[in-house]
Amino acid sequence: MSSFEEAETEETATCLHLTFYHPGQAEKMMFRCLDFCRRQQLRADDTAKFGRDSSLCRYSLVDTRVSRIQFSLQFYRKLHSSEYAFEIKNLSKKTKLTVNQTELGYLNKTDLPWKCIICFGEYQVLAEIQEGEAVDYFETHLHLAEAPILQERCLPSLQPVPENGISPSFPPGQGKSPTEIDENEM
């Protein structure tokens, strides 16, 4: 048997991609302590903490308006399942945290959806979970957004699109209410 045949099966780790945005990031450089260049591996039983206190938080934000520990993310396996997930907990007594418009007060926690927007203060964080098989560890990969995440990821327009796929262009003030058009008039 060759060494290739005897080698351990390579497993992929669940990776949590986090894209950060703050309107004052260029001037205040609050993300300067975060490593945006590479994936970081964490043990499955580690809690990823985000906040101002670098001695308590793995991910430190340089901003006096951020709590010493703002929030934490815990990796876990769902009961009676082989699925892995993350739980987010608000650890700030002063600042509410929202996850896709669900407000979390101090010590409230919820499961992190596979794709969501986390907000606190003026911070916006897009979280996306990339599934993997590894049991003993997970990874984080941090990204920096140049534009507000909420504007980039806004819901699709609620304006109806006709069956022909071409949206009508109305002059300002017209077309505010739907009008019925017979197919033969088109």
From TrEMBL:
Record-linked InterPro entries: FHA_dom (IPR000253), SMAD_FHA_dom_sf (IPR008984), TIFA (IPR033621)
Subcellular location: Cytoplasm
Residues of the signal peptide: none
Domain (FHA) ranges: 49-121
Key words of the record: Cytoplasm, Immunity, Innate immunity
Xref: SUPFAM superfamilies: SMAD/FHA domain
The keyword Kinase is assigned to this record: no
Main location: cytoplasm
Sequence segments annotated as region (Disordered): 164-186
Cited CDD domains: FHA_TIFA (cd22714)
Top-rank lineage group of the source organism: Eukaryota
Record-level GO cellular component terms: cytoplasm
Gene Ontology BP, a term: positive regulation of canonical NF-kappaB signal transduction
PANTHER family with a match to the protein in the record: TRAF-INTERACTING PROTEIN WITH FHA DOMAIN-CONTAINING PROTEIN A, TRAF-INTERACTING PROTEIN WITH FHA DOMAIN-CONTAINING PROTEIN A FAMILY MEMBER
Family to which this protein belongs: Belongs to the TIFA family.
Protein known as: TRAF-interacting protein with FHA domain-containing protein A
Organism: Melospiza melodia
